[in-house]
Amino acid sequence: AFLELSGPSEIKGVWKDSVTLPCAYVPVEDLVQQTLTWTVVHDKGSGAIIRRDDSGDQVLLSEYRDRVSIPKAAPGNVSLLILSLEISDKGTYTCQVTWRDSNNSLIAKEITTTLEVVKVAATKPIIRAAEPGLTLPAGASTSLSCEAGGSPPISYRWFRRGPAGTAEPLSSGAELAWPSLRPSDSGTYFCEAHNR
Hints:
Layout: E1 10-14, E2 19-21, E3 32-42, E4 45-53, E5 56-59, E6 68-69, E7 80-82, E8 91-100, E9 106-118, E10 126-129, E11 142-147, E12 155-161, E13 167-172, E14 175-178, E15 189-194
InterPro entries: Ig-like_dom, Ig-like_dom_sf, Ig-like_fold, Ig_sub, Ig_V-set, VSIG4
Domain Ig-like: 17-112, 125-196
Pfam family, one: V-set
């Protein structure tokens, strides 16, 4: 039986977002997964983050409590999901799996992935309209939504072009909605996205 763990040697995660550190193998008959341990080495030190064995999953490093999990459903997928990335999460992560074969001997494999955590500025937002074409009858309802990428949380502000090119602030929030349009709602609208 030939077993190999696979995963990338380096991965970039976005600050405050979640990231998956891939680690997987193709299950082989007669080989039973015994233990799975994810360990980390970073500025704060090193240690085992999470361990899976017959008794279940145990998170061992308090700074990862409630932030890490391993898929339950897919045999052979032993990837690590980390939620709400902190800058201090950057480091070298090792996925180590042991199996027991039919002769009761143990086989162990490991792979290592380096995690970078990057801060990403909010991207230029895109405005999406509820309807194609923005010529609508009075009394109709419509909405515009604003979308941007980058490190969460992202906040949005809406403006309307006023006289002499001024920008009149409207509301904050990703969506701008009109329950019943009036002719005076005609105009040019802008959305601004920003994060930390």
